[in-house]
């Protein structure tokens, strides 16, 4: 079970903020644990429509990540939007979902690039990541804020406010 920081939030508002930060970031790095205990990460496209504490991804049924998740479901997702200074790290348990109704619900024609046979492709499965904990950094991103931070550091010897950093337990 993931351990949380001493003052991890459990508020619905903070849980919603996690989704607000990641919903427009289409790519995440998904890290799994290999049989020899090493971390293995790869980019995955988020396919969220709604948010209820579970993040969704499409995958090939026969792939290394599926094997790793079925052996050890602990995963880490890393989202980053440097232009907006949004960074989110999510830990949770992944599971393979083979439910055709759920696949059809989340399917878009853009997915045909990776799955040319469409939503009925027998190689198509979903990965559901049930979030246990998230940590986010939401920093000011305007050029003026960075310029002010630089001046503050040079003139006063102080670091600027780095923005909001919070741990959220789901």
Would you kindly provide a written description of the structure presented here, covering whatever features stand out?
It is a single chain. With 170 residues, this protein is an alpha+beta fold. It has a single domain, classed as Electron Transport, Fmn-binding Protein, Chain A (Pnp Oxidase, Chain A). The chain is built from four helices and seven strands, in the order αβββαββαβαβ. Strands 1, 2, 3, 4, 5, 6 and 7 form a seven-stranded antiparallel beta sheet that branches. It is globular, with a radius of gyration of 18 Å. It starts with 11 loop residues before the first helix and ends with a strand. 18% of the residues are buried.
CATH topology: Pnp Oxidase, Chain A
User: Helix segment count?
Assistant: 4
Radius of gyration: 18 Å
Mean pLDDT: 89
What share of the residues does DSSP label as strand, in percent?
35-45%
Write down the secondary-structure element order. Answer: HEEEHEEHEHE
Largest sheet: 7 strands, antiparallel
CATH homologous superfamily descriptor: Electron Transport, Fmn-binding Protein, Chain A
Given this structure, which CATH class is correct?
Mainly Beta
Total domain modules: 1
Give the N-terminus to C-terminus distance in angstroms. 12 Å
Q: What characteristic shape results from the CA principal axes?
A: globular
DSSP strand tally: 7
Question: Any descriptors?
Answer:
single chain, alpha+beta, Pnp Oxidase, Chain A, 7-stranded antiparallel beta sheet, 7 strands
């Amino acid at each position: 079970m993931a351990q949380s920081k001493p003052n991890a939030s459990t508020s619905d508002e903070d849980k919603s903020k996690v989704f607000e930060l990641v919903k427009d970031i289409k790519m995440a790095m998904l890290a799994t644990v290999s049989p020899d205990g090493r971390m293995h990460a790869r980019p995955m496209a988020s396919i969220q429509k709604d948010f209820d504490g579970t993040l969704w991804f499409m995958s090939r049924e026969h792939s290394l990540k599926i094997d790793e998740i079925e052996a050890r479901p602990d995963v880490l997702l890393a989202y980053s939007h440097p232009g907006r200074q949004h960074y989110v790290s999510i830990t949770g348990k992944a599971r393979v979902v083979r439910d055709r109704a759920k696949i059809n619900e989340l399917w878009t024609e853009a997915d045909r690039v990776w799955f040319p046979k469409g939503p009925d492709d027998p190689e198509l499965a979903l990965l559901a990541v049930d979030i246990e904990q998230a940590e986010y950094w939401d920093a000011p991103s305007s050029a003026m804020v960075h310029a002010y931070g630089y001046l503050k550091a040079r003139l006063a010897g102080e670091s600027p406010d780095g923005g909001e950093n919070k741990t959220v337990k789901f």
